[in-house]
Design goal:
Blueprint lengths: L29 H18 L7 H6 L2 H7 L8 H17 L6 E7 L2 E7 L4 E4 L5 E4 L1 H13 L28 H28 L4 H41 L43
Antiparallel strand pairs: 1-2, 2-3, 3-4
Helix pairs in contact: 4-5, 6-7
Amino acid sequence: MADPGDAPDRSGERAPPEDAPGEPSPGSGADGDAESVEALRERVEEKYDFEAFGPREMAEITPEEWDVAFDDESWITGTELLARVERELKSRIASREVFASLEYAEVEGDRALVAYSDTDYAIVFPDGSVEGRGTIVRDVKPTVALCSMDDYEVDDPPEDWRLPDPDSIPDSGSEVGNWMLQLLAATQLLVGLGTLVAWPILGARDNMVLLVVGLGFTAVGLVLFLMVANARLSEKFRLREYKGRLRSTGAASADRPDFLPIEDDAFEGSEPALSGEDEGSKPRDDGPVGR
């Protein structure tokens, strides 16, 4: 598994950082190094609760702490790791924690999992290394680290986990709140205008309070109407932007973003099994991942 902040060597070997706690340095004894590693391991176990180890802890842990806390031989890699990462990312996409499409592709001779959005992408290789750019890499790296742990339980994603089709999204949401505000604004405005009309009739000089009350109700009514108009414009802008992002990811078509460093013919045309077993051990009856 890769260090939390840096992608590991693509050769599959995890080269320890310089002056790593577990490697003897010139002029130091092996016993002293073993004691320092053990002391660091005790501090790490006191600092982190690995039964509730999540993305926040993954972002805080240092490479040295990671090396002493986890045994390389206990990490999950290969097809099983990709299957676990796929399931975890699908769950996070379904809950809209991650905005991305998922597909498998052949990259540098390896079958890799590719997550991409409208501007960023991340490629997860079987050895646990992650390559890519943008914020989606920061989302995927902790997920890969967690899924590489045998103790981490990955939940099954819902059946409808994909990003929505932009054409299926309504142009506006519920109008109940807007109608309530408009009704309140109309009431305030009518009361204010009625008070202003009655003010000169009842005597302008002797009823200055009516003038103040009328102006106040009128101002509140106008402000509420402006709030409703602004809310509607903001909602339309957000919906237009969101639909544009969905179309950029290819959610409504078979087109993929142009910035992906992978040819279209390298992508697989059907969804792999989620169990981590051999591809031929389970029939694929679903559509393309992320399509």
